[in-house]
Amino acid sequence: MANKNNNKKTEKKKEESKKEVKEVKEEVKKNDSKKNDTKKNTSKKADSNKNKKDAKKEIVKEESTSKKDKEKEKVKDELKVEVEEKVEESKKDKKSDKKAEKKAEKKAEKVAKKEEKEKRKAALENNKYAIQTKQKVSLIVTAIVIVLVLGLIAYVTNTIIKKVNYTTQNPVATIEVENYGTIKVELLPEYAPNTVTNFIALSNNEFYDGLTFHRTIPDFMIQGGDPNGDGSGNATLGDLKSEEEKNAENNTDANNTSAEDDTAEYSIEGEFAMNGYDKNTLKCKRGVIAMARSDYSSLGTTVAKEGYNSASCQFFIVTSEEHESSLDGQYAGFGKVIEGMDVVDKIANVEVQTRESGDNTLKQDMPIDPPVITSIRVDTHGVDYGKPKTQEPFDYYSYMMRQYYGGAGLQ
């Protein structure tokens, strides 16, 4: 703004100087014209021989004019000098204006640089803030991810630990025997899973309640769980069901066909090596519980295999190590006594009708007063083992009838 005002003043001074020079020139020109006229008049007067007085006056006049002219010349020179000074001053003003312009330009440049610097600084600050914000967000996200991952790891680890503990918490059967005490048996589904499932289903559906140990042999085993009480009985499909399940089936089955099925006897597949099941490596040592089954080996190989799959509900507990070799791989061991082995030994040594075979009036190894199983309950630790796989049992009586009275029979 200051530069523009200075430029206007300079231009105004120039215009005034030019105007003054022009006026001086016009004045000089007029004076020259008058001078010439005066010379002509003087010459004429001299030629006409005017009187000297007039001539002298004329001369004085001329001298006076000349003096005036000199004064004008002096004024002219002074004006010229003044004009030159003004011109010089104008030049100085121009230089000053240029300096001012340069100074202003430098100042503007400096201001621009400062503004640019401030902009860069602001941009850097913004960028720094953005980076810091991004880093904070990244740290927060990372922290959240770490917490989630740690939580997931903790959850998985806890689940695995629970699962490991869960799998190590095998089902435990509690056998209460009237007037004898309690026997606790740890069931081992890793050796015979279907056998364990069958025993749990029968026990927790109160099948064994009130049954007896109908066969006892000292230094060998005790056998029980027969609904007939003499070693001839099997469980039925209905024995695997709770009262609630039976009632539910009856309510949904108008024809009541399920009740007929519930009365059918069943057997389970023998989970032991002689029957082609190699996963059961449990040795029949003292304290091991195993499933009792029929032995048809005297009737030939084919019929003998029918005996392998004849187990249903009867079980025995080994009381000695002496018979281990005759039992291993031929019977499905599925658990071991963990408490109450003294109770087992007491039952094994009860008084029996006879220890001799061949006496038709007495039953060999049957107690005179069979120990009563008050109840058997299995704690599964929350695991639902479901129902066992069953099959139709071998009909030994029909087979023998066919052998004696004809028919295809089994070879």
Q: How would you characterize this protein structure?
A:
With 411 residues, the protein is an alpha+beta fold. It has two domains: 2-166; 171-405, Cyclophilin (Beta Barrel). The protein contains nine helices and eight strands. An eight-stranded antiparallel β-sheet has the order 3-4-6-5-7-2-1-8. Strand 3 and strand 4 (221-224) form a beta hairpin. Helix 1 (2-47) runs antiparallel to helix 2 (52-168). It starts with a helix and ends in a 6-residue tail after the last helix.
List keywords for this structure.
8 strands; 9 helices; 8-stranded antiparallel β-sheet; Cyclophilin; rod-shaped
CATH topology of the largest domain: Cyclophilin
Mean pLDDT: 83
- How many domains, as an integer? 2
**Could you say which structural class the secondary elements and strand pairing correspond to?**
alpha+beta
The percent range for helix content is: 40-55%
Going across the major beta sheet, what is the strand order?
3-4-6-5-7-2-1-8
Distance between the termini: 130 Å
Query: Which shape, going by the Cα principal axes?
Result: rod-shaped
